[in-house]
Specification:
By secondary structure, the chain is an alpha/beta fold. The protein has two domains: 248 residues, Aspartate Aminotransferase, domain 2; 132 residues, Aspartate Aminotransferase, domain 1. Helix content is 41%, strand content 14%. The protein has 14 helices and twelve strands. Helix 1 runs antiparallel to helix 3, helix 4 crosses helix 9 and helix 10 packs across helix 14. The longest helix is centred in the middle third of the chain and has 32 residues. It is globular.
């Protein structure tokens, strides 16, 4: 299996067939498991084998198949499947940290990630220092002997700032800190995060892994020592584990993810290229465009600009006019879906941020984030051009 390419791993890794020899993975919809004897139950609670399960909150065969498959795809030793992307982010950080620890984080983050860092962790005595994720000097200056972890989105939501995983990892490891990366925009298809130095990788599986708007899910990937020794005890006792049915949906999503994501990324580049010459837009932001400030880094780190682009229409009024003129592209706040989705971050996903902080992060009133789906790209370009031209 180690010699298989990613697309093959996404279809075949981690399969556990029952005595019936099913082709499609089985859904084990059970909350508990039966023991042959009291002695067997006692032994399993002391130490469970790889295919021995106790309770669905602790583990499940369908969930284990998803964990094994995504770990094989990402190139990590292990994975733990969570109820949502934010359960994964919160679990990865909270299981690792305690009162008195220090964290360095990029400032440009999804709103809920900011909440965990600013409100939850600090409430329990963790000190957090925020830096400009693209500025290595700020990362270097923020590192301390008591820094326990660094956290960042490899591609920031929604400004598409790209963080240098390799360089930040070297700085963090020099002081003994673990590198926790939210890698959702890079996707498992284009990810080289583990090779680039990340210790813990987090995905919202709700996005590209499912890819069809059906289920909430998340996953944390890393060494077996971290996943089973640090994260699992926290997650299984606090209830953040994934349901078997969700795991089955995500297994099916993984089978087509490579094809979907590559097609979406190709369309995103085509759309960004078509829009960048518009004199009615302040800016077209896409890491796959050569004028993006982090283009070289994006190409070296993932080899793709990804499935998401952002445009700045100059004002909230103009942004709303564009959004309200769309028919194919849906107004919603998810991304990575088969359907193209447009979002106005300043009034939705990042609305809780003070206005000065939004501006500092680049979340302007005119900014629209567009997650490119699987529709015909010419239809998407025509629709966006029409909405922009009508301003």
């Amino acid at each position: 299996m180690k010699t298989w390419n990613k697309r093959t791993k996404a279809v075949h890794s981690g399969i556990r067939r029952s005595q019936y020899g099913e082709v499609s993975e089985a859904i084990y919809m059970t909350q508990g498991f039966v023991y042959n004897s009291a002695e067997d139950a006692e032994a399993r609670f002391i130490e469970s084998g790889p295919d021995e399960f106790i309770y669905a909150r602790y583990g499940n065969p369908t969930v284990a198949m998803f964990e094994d498959r995504i770990a094989a795809l990402e190139g990590t030793e292990d994975a733990f499947a969570c109820a949502s992307g934010m359960a994964a982010v919160n679990g990865a950080l909270t299981s690792l940290l305690k009162a008195g620890d220090h964290v360095v984080s990029a400032r440009a983050l999804f709103g809920s990630c900011l909440y965990v860092l600013e409100e939850v962790l600090t409430r329990f005595g963790v000190e957090v220092t925020f830096v400009d994720g693209a500025n290595l000097d700020e990362w270097q200056a923020a590192m301390r002997p008591d820094t326990k972890a660094v956290f960042f989105e490899s591609v920031a939501n929604p400004t598409l700032q790209v963080v240098d995983i390799t360089s930040v990892s070297k700085l963090a490891h020099a002081v003994g800190a673990l590198v926790v990366v939210d890698n959702v925009f890079a996707t498992p298809v284009f990810s080289n995060a583990a090779e680039n130095g990340a210790d813990v990788i987090v995905y919202s599986a709700t996005k590209h892994i499912d890819g069809q708007g059906r289920a909430l899910g998340g996953v944390v990937l890393g060494t077996k020592e971290f996943i089973r020794g640090t994260l699992e005890p926290y997650m299984k006792h606090t209830g953040g584990s994934m349901s078997p049915f969700t795991a089955w949906l995500l297994l099916k999503g993984l089978e087509t993810m490579d094809l979907r994501v590559r097609a979406q990324a190709d369309s995103a580049l085509e759309i960004a290229t078509a829009l960048q010459g518009s004199n009615k837009l302040e800016q077209v932001i896409y890491p796959g465009l050569t004028n993006h400030p982090h283009y070289d880094l994006a190409m070296a780190q993932t080899g793709s600009g990804g499935t998401v682009l952002s445009i700045d229409a100059g004002s909230q009024e103009a942004a709303f006019k564009i959004l309200n003129a769309l028919e194919i592209i849906t107004i919603s706040n998810n991304l990575g879906d088969a359907k193209s989705i447009a979002t106005h971050p300043a009034t939705t996903t990042h609305q809780r941020l003070p206005d000065d902080q939004k501006i500092a992060l680049g979340i302007t009133p005119g900014l629209i984030r567009i997650s490119v789906g699987l529709e015909d790209v010419s239809d998407l370009i025509n629709e966006l051009n029409g909405a922009i031209t009508a301003l």
